[in-house]
Amino acid sequence: MPSLAAPRPSRLRVLVLVVLLLVHWQPVPALERRGAASLLTAETTPEPTKAPSPAPAKPLPGPVEEMRHAILAATHSGRIEDLIVPLDWNELKPDVAPTSVEDPIAYWKKTSADGKGREILAALANILEMKPAELPLGQDLENNIIYVWPYLAEAKLDSLTPSQEVDLLRLVSPPEAEAMRKSKTWTWWRLTIGADGTWHSFKKGK
Fold it and tell me: Which residues lie below 8 Å from residue 41, measured CB to CB, with a gap of 6+?
């Protein structure tokens, strides 16, 4: 009696089928798979929040920047006598003491702890490396701003931000900083330059 089971395919037919599958099968390249995975990740993973960039510092007027550079040049030389250059740019000598002083350089040498004025140069360099505060002064629309270094001299000392406190400690010792915060009074060096480049003052306090 003949068998009713389906006939088995011959080995040749199976071999032909495998060859056809190999010819028409096109695997996805590895780079494409990685690209698809990256796209999926980008769509499902939110980008990290970026911190806002700090606002660029406002440029100083040309005459103010020239005076600042002239003073800094003297501090870099280490010779208090080199301050004669920016001093001579003024029609009048800047206010440097509680009473009138005819020779600021001689006065700075006398009051400097080292006797050569280098303590004064260090103070000038430190404050001029910081940003200034801007104060309106007078009715002259072109020259009605006074630039004050450091900006902390015009800040609310009892409510400084952490970064401002760091700036303060760059200038004075912790006990001096604490005393100023408690008294709400600036007692360290303060330098002022007008918008026209005039060096108005450099002394402690206001």
Answer: none
- Which pair of structure tokens corresponds to residue 45? 């993973």
More confident residue, 203 or 7: 203
120 contact partners, CB below 8 Å, separation of at least 6: 80, 108, 111, 112
Mean local confidence (pLDDT), 121-150: 88
Coil vs helix vs strand at 132: coil
β partners of residue 147: 134, 193
Residue 137 is predicted with a pLDDT of: 77
Return the domain boundaries, the chain: 63-204
pTM of the model: 0.71
Peptide bond connecting 63 to the previous residue in cis, omega within 30 degrees of 0: no
Contacts of residue 84, Cβ cutoff 8 Å, sequence gap at least 6: 105
Query: Which secondary structure element, helix H or strand E, spans residue 35, and what is its range?
Result: helix 30-44
Nearest in space to 169 (alpha carbons), one of 160, 177, 158? 177
Angle at CA of residue 189, ends 198 and 61, nearest 5°: 30
Q: How confident is the model at residue 42 (pLDDT cuts 50, 70, 90)?
A: very low
